[in-house]
Each structure stands twice: as structure tokens, then as C-alpha cells.
Amino acid sequence: MYAVVKTGGKQYKVVVGQKLNIEQITADVDSQIVLEEVLMVADGEAVKIGTPVVAGASIKATVVSHGRGEKVTIFKMRRRKHYMRRAGHRQNYTEIRIDAIVA
């Protein structure tokens, strides 16, 4: 059984027991969260596709940790113009463990 869930503006295919890094959410470590925007649920041959979400479906997960991703370097340069800029960015994330898919 798997599901497609939307959180943080992105879509993820999730399976029970999977660990997943999603956009940062405000929840304490070891707390239970419920993801409501389930776009699709598949159980063998039975597939439910929502318009846009599946009614009554949800994903139960546990927050494992919070962290910051790899550094992305932004470099801008204009040749012969004496223009050069460097910047960096590290995106915050929340690691969750999928406990149950409720369809």
C-alpha cells in the first residue's frame, strides 16, 4: 500500500515505515502529525484518485528530527563589468517517519 501526499508545495510517494525529508513544519520531535492532503491511495489493484484530494484519507507520521540541507552556492558574474556576487542558502527540513495510511 502506498499513497501520494502533498506537503510544503511538493508531492511525495509514501509507504508505511519510510523516512522522508519534507519542508520544515512547526512540530516537536517525537510528536505525531497528520497529513491531510492525500492525492492518491493505492492498495494492490484498488486505486483511489482524489479530485483534488481523496475524501477521508490521511497519513499519520512521527517527527524524527529537524535539520538543514546541503549548502547551495549562488554565484553571479558579469564579464568585463567588475560585477561578482556570491551567496549561499541552506534549506530547513523536517524528517518524518510514516506510521499509517488511513484510506
UniProtKB/TrEMBL annotation:
GO terms for biological process: translation. Keywords: Ribonucleoprotein, Ribosomal protein, RNA-binding, rRNA-binding. It comes from Deefgea piscis. HAMAP family: Ribosomal_bL21. This is Large ribosomal subunit protein bL21. Signal peptide: none annotated. GO terms for cellular component: cytoplasm; ribonucleoprotein complex; ribosome. This protein binds to 23S rRNA in the presence of protein L20. Belongs to the bacterial ribosomal protein bL21 family. GO terms for molecular function: rRNA binding; structural constituent of ribosome. Pfam families: Ribosomal_L21p. It comes from the Bacteria. Part of the 50S ribosomal subunit. Contacts protein L20.
